[in-house]
Every structure is written in structure tokens, then in C-alpha cells.
Amino acid sequence: MRKDGMSEPLLKVRKLVKRFVLKGTDSVVSAVSNVSFQIGRGETLGLVGESGSGKTTVGRCILRVIEPTDGDIIYNGKDVTRLSQREFFPYRRAMQMVFQEPHFSLNPRYTALDTLAEPLKLYGERNRARLRGRVLELLNLVRLDKRNLDVFPHQMSSGQQQRLSIARAIATNPDLVVLDEPTSMLDLSVRAEIIDLLVELQEKTKMAYLFISHDLSTVEYICHRVAVMYLGEIVEFGTVSQVFGSPQHPYSRALLSSVLPPNPATKRSSYILDGEIPSPVNLPHGCFLASRCPEVMPRCREFRQMLRASQDGRAVRCWRVTEELRGISAESRVLQ
Amino acid sequence: MAFSTKASVPAARSEDSACGPNSTEQATLSVRDLHVHFLTYAGVVKAVNGVSLSVRRGEMTALLGESGSGKSVVAWSIFGLIKPPGRVVQGEVLWRGDNVLTMSKGRLRELRGREISLIVSNPRSHLHPLTKVGAQIEAVRAAREGAREATLEALRAVDMPDPLRVYNSYPHELSGGMAQRVLIAMALINSPELVVADDATNALDVTVQRQVLDLMTMRIRQSNASALMITHDLGIVAQYCRRATIVYAGQVYESADTQRLFENPLHPYTQAMIATTRRRRSERLPPALASIAPNPMALPAGCYLAERCPVAMDECRQRMPELQEVEPGHWVRCLRHPGRTATGSANHGGHRADVVIA
Amino acid sequence: MMSMPKPLKYFVAYLRTHLDALIGLIVVGLFLLAAMFAQAIAPFDPETPTDVFRSAPSVTHWFGTDSSGLDVFSRVVYASRIDLFIGVVGTALSMAVGVPLGLLVGYYRGWPSELVMRVSDLLQAFPPFVLAMALVAIVGPQLQNVIFVIAFLTPPVFLRLVRSEVLAFRERTVIEAARCVGNRDYRLLRYYFAPNVIESALVQASVSAGWAIMLTAGLSFVGAGIPVTTPEWGSMVGIGAQMMMTGEWWASFFPGLAIAACVLSFAAVGEAVRILVNPERRP
After folding, report:
1. Which chain B residue is nearest to residue C9, measuring alpha carbons?
2. pLDDT over 70 for what percent of chain B?
3. β-strand pairing of A44-48 with A225-230
4. What is the pTM of this model?
5. How far is B229 from chain C (nearest CA, A)?
6. Complex ipTM, two decimals?
């Protein structure tokens, strides 16, 4: 995407591809196809999509939990894609992750103290007093009472567990935190508190977030920019007010209309896609959405559209939208 | 989120009914002062502590609560499914006048899946993995003749794209949305009078969830059945349900017509929940949300929400408020809203069997 | 990394509500006491014959005497030393081999793991008792050899068990999270996999201990184990078997009862031990 004259972005992902081979068969699943984006310091980028969109895979590739099939991941100007796990180790200090199910991402045999001390120990801190001090500081940052030091995950509520996960992620003062559906398993009231905590932490430490979620209202609340993904591709990109305020891609529009307004006075929209998300194993050679799109044109089934940027920093991957835009603005650059 | 949409669907409303809140005659299902405890070796878990609610004929009622509020336990009680270590220690569940909790096995068999049916979430974990879907639906059907035809018809009715293929499929061959539709077909095939949907669309993708909800509510309404939607999603409550009952830690805290509830939420907990869904980025979170649930093995003496309530008074921590009707059809359990006292004996803790809130 | 007093509290609460575990613990305790204080408890020397032969249980000889005039009760008490020792030590050695191997085989893929599994399969393919007899015959019927034979035969059980737990556990998000934080193989195995799979290994151990005792008893019964004069339950059952013909049941019955009681109570205690090891079982 554009640089806008900013200094080198914190993270640049270029043409990321991830393909899986299904066990026992020859089928290849294209989980991620050609995804590119940038995140600047202190910024929150949202990745939105449903199952099969590849958003979770993108997060895991960036942190080298899964190895990308192709593409580049550039952190602070350095290409870290092909480093071995050992060479990548020092970078992990600066890039951390918070997972979806707090209970399952914590070691059931570790107390909170163990969980938080671990990243510190791994990066060199040995002094017990300093460890304890930093752990208490972290607990304080995430608003967990220090009585929780000797408590096991199963003794905490899911909200507390998630706070602990967050504390673990920020223990080494990372520059980037990837959050993979951090609130979907939480209750409404807890969700709001965790989101507020994340915003507060970002304000304090200027960390960047990659916020992966299917919960649109939360994404709208916390993100600056957002990318909408469908079957491994980005179909729309822009600031939150652009994409949520005036979505252009039919998938974005359908996604937003499927949210039920929590207000009986507001009528729910009926812009709905046909059918269900197709299997990512046999992707069509035209537009991936063609079989379900309410505005499909013949060309859509034949040719894949590129992601085209417009003047205001937005990008959309859609024939119909491009046609409409052509009437309005002469410029539309092909991005990939 | 404001953007121009295409055609809009009006929010669901059933026919206007003029019955008052205490009219049990109109209710097909009436839960009265239900208390359910679970006895574990570590202590007694008090899952439900005095829940009363009614579902009226042809109406969709929401039971709204977060996890741990006891809402699923209420659902199981409706079907008489509470078994040791769980025990119903008090209360009744009246279906057409009979108490489900004391029904004979034979009567329960007629009731379950036929007069009242259940739709759960996680469809693929609730279908037999080794039996074809068609056979499973047929097994649920009460009448024996014409089973295959009726099953195919039921699959068509839930907008299944290829009913015959689905009929011959195994559950793992279906997608999440399709499996959920199978559960809906199973729930509706005997034309029940009441459908209980326990977080039915929880496991589905957002767009599929929307499709399934629209479909499910439409079919229920078409068959004139009532529905109890158990959920934690305010959107579902607002868009599909006529009435809403809010539970927390096994107790009802507020109950009203949905429209009124959103226009004028009375309990601080309800207000906070609604405010959360509406806030903009710069707004701070209302502090009233009780995110740390009370320990069901050691419940406090006073109001369970007193810990985090911004407007809590000392009295709130000492005394459990009773459920009061503050305006017609709108009940609240809060010392800040005394309201008119309902009929019945004055008693501690609001546990009165004769109070029925509809 | 566990806080000490609290697990005990839950253990006690568990015992109160689970009679089988409580009885099991008491029985195991009694046997331990018998083993430790055999000299104080046993009225007679286990290897010195009295001059009363084949007498039924009486006030002097609680369990009667056998065909050599040895007091059965004293021998049963002394035998608990040997049998418990074999059971516990044999199983401990077995775990020391089987559990770490299971961790490695479950975690690492590739031909070494496959090789270990095939060897393990091979070992398990033989009827254990026959194999034990053959091994003891080769190395000689001594106490330590019996232990080694057990330590050699039982690891596959632990290996298989731990391996399957590791295979399941490695799919959990916590392992991804641990990797993200920066943990590498050794730490993962030691701090994540090991503490989380040890519980089932311990339960298995309680069953295996009972089985080890049975194996020892069986070997001695056919004369392939420990020398006959040394009191050991199995050999006692063997000796007493001849007396059964004439209706003199006590020389076989009591040692047999001891074996059964031991095996059952180990199993019952095994269940309860889970409370001690797994914090999740303590709400």
C-alpha cells in the first residue's frame, strides 16, 4: 500500500502465500494468496473475515508459527521470512501474539507467576527480585490483582485468563502484537473491558496491533485501518471509516449487513449473499465470490480482478466497483 | 455503522397481544421460582436461584445472559433433564398446566421433541457421526408413515440446496450452516408448540448465522409456535424477540418487552450492556459491568451485582432486592427501583412461587 | 511449582467422598507398615520352622502353618517387603525408561521414533509371562533380576500411553503460544508436555505396580523367580497349593488374599493421586 511519506513501516507483508496439502490426499488448500499490507508504529490494522478467509493463517505466518509458502515478511526493514527458527528467536521479543481461547493458550500447570516470568527468563533476566518486580508491574498494567500470582489458569475467569495472556504478550515490550480473535470467546461485558485495556496499553506503549477478528463492531472500535479477507485474498482495504462507513466490495457489504443491530428500532439490512462459503480446496478461476454475489457480472466468472487502489488510500478487488470508479476517477493503480 | 442498504426487513413483531403480565392462562410454558443446585465434592454449585419466566403462545421470548448465568440449566429443566449431581431444589416448570419436573416417563417422551423441541449450538457434535442425516431426522419424527417424504420436505423447508443429497449424507460431510439447518429441521418436524433455541447459532460464521436466524425465526413464526431464544447476543434479542428476560448468576434481574427494554433499561447491568454496544471509540466503558462472576458455591447475601454496581448502596450488599413490576410488564430487581409490589407474601430474597413475570 | 498445603486439602476431601480410594489408601498403608515393621509385627521368624506342621489358623498362628512348619502370618508380613519393593521399584524403573521415551517419540517424527515404536511393539507381542520366565531363566532367579525383568517388560505400556498424550497435546494452542513466546524443544518437553502427561502415567503406574506384583508372584509360583525359602506371596501360594488337595486352604489363601488386596488398593489409590498432581482437579 502507500507509504504516505512516513518512515519505514514497522511491518511489511509482501505477496504472502500459504498453501497446505491435505493429509492423505493430493488436494492443495490455498489458505492465503498474495496478501500484502503494512503496519506502522502504534497503528492497529484489522483483518476481518469468516472461516476460510485466511486471516488467522496470516497472523501465524508473520510470527513464524507456520512457515509461509512464499512471499516476504519485512520487519523494521529486515527480511525475516527465511531465517531459521534459531535466527528468528531474537525477533520474537518484539513480536508477540494473543490467542483466541485464553484457557487453551495458557499452560495449565503454570501459575500466573510462571507464565509471566517465562518470557522474561527466555530473554535473559535471571535475577529473582527483578523478575518478580516486573511480573507485578505487568499484573498491574493489565489490572490483575497480585493475589493472582500463585493462581492456576483454571481458577481464573476467562476475562482474567485473557488479561494474563495479554500480560504475557507485552512482557518483553514488543513493537507488534498479533491478536487472533482475542475476544470472541468472552462474554460481552468482559469483551469491552479487554478491548479498553488493549487501547489503553497501546496509548501507553505505542505498540502496533494486528487485530484479527470476525467481530465487526469490535474491529470498528479499535482499528485504524482494516482489510477484509475472503478465501485467502484481501477484497477491500481502507480506513475504518471508509470501509465501515461506505463499503464498496459486495462481500464487505454483506458482512456488515449480517450484523444484527442491538436496537429494536433499527431495521436489519437484507443484503445477503447466497449459499455458503465454498471450500478453499477447489477455488474457481474467476472471482472467488462470483457464485454468491448479488451483483455478479459475466466477466466476474471469467477473470480475477486485481486489487485496485484509489486516490484516498482505499483499495477494492471488484469488477463492478472498478467500472463505477472508472467513471469517477481516472487513476486506479494495480497493486498486485 | 451507517450506510445505505438495499431493501430492509422490518424488525420482527408478533401480533399485538393485549394480555397483562400476570396472565398465566395465555402462557404455554411457565417456569416458577426455579432453583437448581449441583452437588460436587468440592461444594454445592447454585446454578439457578429463583428464575421465573413465561412464554406466551406464538411469542418469541429471549433469555439473555452471559456464560455462567444459568440459562442453559433453565433450558434443561424445561425438558426435565436435570439429573444427579444436579437437583431441582425448588420450583416448578408448568407446561399446559402440568409440572414437567414431576411428569411420568411416558409423558416426558411425548413432550420432548414433539411438544417442545430443542435446537442447540455446535450441530456436528450433536448429531450421530455414524448415521446418515436422513435417518436421524426420521428417528425424531413421531408419526411413522410417510417418514421419508416428510423428512425431505423438512429439509426443503430449511432451504437446503440439495435435500436428497443431504438426506444421504453423514454429518461430517455437511458444513456448519447445513448441519445447523438439519437440527432446525429435526426440531420442527413434529410441529412443536414451543421451540427452545440454546445459543443456536453460536458456532456459525457471521453471514451464515444471519441466514440461519432469519430462516429459523421465519419457520417458527409460520408454524405459530412459541420460542425461547437463549442467547448472550443483544442483536438477536433486539431483532427477533418480543420479550426479554435477563439473568445473572441464576437470577432474573430485568424482564420487559424488548422495545421497552431498549428504550428504557432500568437495571444498571442492563444499561451497561446496552451502552457497551453503542459506544464510540472515545467513550469510556461504563463501570457497571460485572465481569467477575460471583462464585456459585459461595453466593453473597445481598445483590449479586452489588460488587461492581456504580450506584450500589450499602443496603444492596446486605439485602437481596425482590423482583418488582416498575411499569406494566417491566420487572426489575433493584433497590433503586422499588416500583409497585406484586401480589403475594413478603419474603426474603424475592423467592416467591406465585410471582409470574411474563 | 505447586503450592503445597492446598492439594492435600482437596485430596482429603476426595477421600472423604470416595470410599474406594480411602480403603485403598488404608490397605496400602497397612502393607507399608507391615513391610517396614515386619520384625516387630511378625511373631515368628519367617524362615525358621516351628514344630507345628500344617495347623489351621489358631490363636498362636493366626494364619496357620504350612507343610514346613513355617508360620504363614509371619511369612505374609515379611513377604510384603519383597513384593512391595519389587512392585514399586520395578514400576519406577519402568517409568524412568518409558515416560521420557514416550515424550520423545510423541514429539519428534521420523525414523528414530518409528524404530522405537516397532521395538516396543515387538516387546509387547510376546506373552509377557512367558517372556519373563525365559528372561529370568537366562539371568538367574534372583531378586534384582526379577526387578530388571519387570523394568524391561513394562516400559512399552508407558511409552504408548505417554506418546498418545503427547500427540494430542501438541495440537493444543498452548504449544503454539509457548513457541511464540520463544520456547524451544527442550523447554517445551520439560515444562509443557511432561507436567501435563504425567497424570495418566501415574495412574498407569498404580496399575502397573499391581501387575508387577502379580508377575513376581506368578514367576515364583512356577519356581522361576525368587528362591523358595525367601517369603514371597507368589511362592507361598505355590507351596500351599499342594496342601489345598487335602483341604488345608490357609497356606495359599492368605498370601493370595494379600496379592489381591495389594493390586486392588494400588489401583484405587491411583485414581486419587490424580488430585495431587493435576491442579485442574481442584476447583
Report:
1. B42
2. 83
3. parallel
4. 0.82
5. 31
6. 0.84
